[in-house]
Design a protein that fits this description.
- The protein is mainly alpha-helical and 401 residues long.
- It is 40% helix and 9% strand.
- It has a domain of 203 residues: Rossmann fold (3-Layer(aba) Sandwich).
- The protein has 14 helices and nine strands.
């Protein structure tokens, strides 16, 4: 095997977008139910002149999409589902800036009655819990806080860290499942998520789809659903759990959704998505507050701050793909015109890959791993085309310029 091979199927030649600071190492999409061996991910698509697909779509948002027409489509959609009594729409909501923005707009501008539903973080941060309570009391929302089986969720998170270096995989799956599952439970035929992840660099065509892809609901086979790098069937054989314990992680049946005529939409299709503007809006309308200190690994104080182990999700993306939280934050803010590319480069060089030491002990305890084992696992996922080791120290080979 050649010396500089890519461990996860990413392009071996590293390229950086000439408009933002993302590289072609960003996975095109998260494979929700990935096994230990499914690392055939392709990097984010780059257009002519090394412009990433996220920046390309941003140009389209600014010049080619008729947002007034999209707003009319949203009004028609809300009119279709608005009720005289009961809940009109399910909104997956953490109480953060983005879901606060979506929930408040739907309730107070479009006169919908949302039931907001929260998939609980692994370990609530103080500011995360306060923001959820403000979201409910200041914003004025009914809310269901769904906390999955703690014993199972810890196991899945630990396995995801060990087998995939993706400790957030079980959380991300649950976050996507909970809206449609609650819609079925409460018989509400309309679910509204915030942004489509295609905003940040998945297949460009995905941005033009207002609804979640039906493929997400097409697999209920426990032989083919992988959590933490193991199939559910294998997990049932190896542990004391039963199939019912996995209910929140298994997609609802597509035929059940169709039978109840449930539609799952993305708000970002109808409104031009700008996370920083969402922050200003949520701060004003739902009592959302930023953290008192910047997030380790980045320069911001208001993005993804409700979970104590969130920082390790971004630290592991830095190890696997050479892209930490500062790269993601800065790229998004360049696209939205909040900072220049030069400023973004400086911020990435300063903060990307910073180790999240504040909650390190809590993370180790949560996944039942000691510090020595942690670093052994981390180092095993450093791709040779991204990392060099010299004098027992690891150094990333190429950084953004």
């Amino acid at each position: 095997m050649k010396k500089n091979y890519s461990l996860f199927g990413m392009p071996e030649k590293i390229k950086y977008c000439t408009k933002c600071v993302i590289s072609n190492q960003r996975p095109n999409a998260i494979i929700e139910f990935e096994s230990k061996n499914t690392f055939e991910k392709q990097g984010i698509t780059f257009e002519n002149n090394n412009i990433c697909s996220a920046c390309k779509f941003n140009e389209i948002k600014e010049t080619k999409i008729n947002w007034e027409e999209r707003n009319k489509q949203l009004e028609i959609l809300c009119d279709k589902y608005r009720k005289k009594s009961g809940y009109d729409v399910i909104v997956p909501s953490s109480g953060g800036k983005d879901s606060g923005y979506v929930s408040h707009i739907l309730k107070y501008k479009y006169k919908m009655n949302p039931l907001t539903v929260t998939w609980a973080p692994h370990l609530y941060s103080d500011i995360g819990w306060k923001n959820l309570q403000s979201f409910i009391s200041v914003g004025g929302f009914d809310n269901v806080l769904f906390t999955p089986n703690g014993k199972l969720h810890r196991l899945l998170t630990s396995l995801a860290f060990k087998n995939l270096l993706h400790p957030f995989q079980p959380f991300i799956i649950g976050q996507k499942m909970i809206g449609p599952l609650i819609a079925l439970k409460f018989d509400v035929p309309f679910v509204m998520f915030g942004e489509n992840n295609a905003e940040y660099g998945n297949n460009l065509d995905d941005n033009f789809k207002p609804e979640m892809d039906e493929k997400f609901f097409s697999n209920q086979n426990i032989e083919n659903i992988y959590l933490g790098g193991k199939s559910i069937s294998a997990l049932l054989k190896d542990n004391e759990f039963n199939l019912n314990d996995f209910t929140p992680y298994i997609p609802p049946k597509l035929e059940d959704l169709k039978k109840k005529k449930i539609e799952v939409h993305f708000f970002s299709y109808y409104k031009k998505w700008d996370p920083q503007e969402s922050y200003y809006y949520a701060f004003d309308k739902t009592g959302f507050k930023p953290n008192t200190e910047r997030t380790e690994g980045s320069y911001s104080k208001y993005s993804s701050i409700d979970d104590k182990i969130d920082d390790f999700h971004y630290f592991t993306t830095y190890i696997k793909y050479g892209l930490g939280r500062a790269s993601y934050d800065a790229s998004q803010e360049v696209r939205c015109g909040k900072i220049t590319r030069e400023e973004a480069v400086s911020l990435v060089k300063k903060y990307d890959g910073e180790f999240p030491k504040k909650n390190f002990k809590a993370f180790l305890e949560y996944i039942n791993v000691n510090e020595s084992e942690f670093w052994k696992i981390i180092d095993s996922y450093r791709s040779p085309h991204l990392w060099n080791k010299k004098d027992n120290n690891w150094k990333i080979k190429e950084i953004v310029k």
